[in-house]
Amino acid sequence: MPDKLSRIESKCAEKGLKMTGQRRVIARVLSESHDHPDVEQLYGRAVKVDPHISIATVYRTVKLFDEAGITQKHDFGDGRSRYEEASENHHDHLIDLKSGKVIEFTSDEIERLQKEIAKKLGYRLVDHRLELFAVPEKAS
Fold this sequence. Notes:
single chain; alpha+beta; two-stranded antiparallel ribbon; 5 helices; 16% strand
């Protein structure tokens, strides 16, 4: 394993979480993911690094990371919980219902509209998640 800590390992250290070898593998696999993997996908990637990791360990570890605010759990409507590293940079998601691809995006206009709507209804927006479910306009 490389000497440099992954982003998730660094966040775990900041929060004082005990890091076993298997947790480190799962943290690195998740840090290196460019998609939003579910537990089965994480498990498949982690056992390539350490064949002794059990799926139960992956479940426990992602739950621990999620509860510590290190990762975020998403439900994109396919019946599987998906995970990504928690980020200070807010973004929203568009889910392609045909391919299952998850596209991250940001929109200043959407952010402004959400705050405006909350204010009109007498609220101050403190957090939100936006998930758009879509199909391609053109048939492939």
